[in-house]
Design goal:
The chain has about 140 residues and is of the alpha+beta class. The protein is about 40% helix and about 25% strand. A hairpin with a 5-residue loop joins strand 2 and strand 3. Helix 1 crosses helix 2 and helix 2 crosses helix 3.
Length: about 140
Amino acid sequence: RDRESRYYPAFLKPYVRRLVDVGEVAVALYAAGVSQRKAAEILSLLLGHRYSHETLSALTDEVLEAAGAFRTRPLPEEMAFVYLDGLSLKVFREGEGIVRESVYVALGIAPNGERRVLGFWLLPTESALGWEGVLEELWQR
């Protein structure tokens, strides 16, 4: 460290206490279907620091808010192409277990060639009514 605090090595971020992003690990565990209490135990074992399930709940809430903001952001005025696709995934639902649901994805390509994910939707099945709702939401945005 220099006297004026201007030098920081590339591999050490200033004021960071951990090398692992706890939020990313917590969300990955939560997405895998691990309960928040069990995820807190796993993080405590892996990282050597006690995390409560309330902390993990706050982290996952932040991620869900960010996903909501992503899904409702305004879209660019023009796109050269818009690709629509649906795929079927196995999803864990509390009380139901693992069920198969459809993910609708909209990918836009700008006139300069830049690709952007315009949105994604998780619906029980792929149907004409589902695609109608997706296109209506894209049109509104």
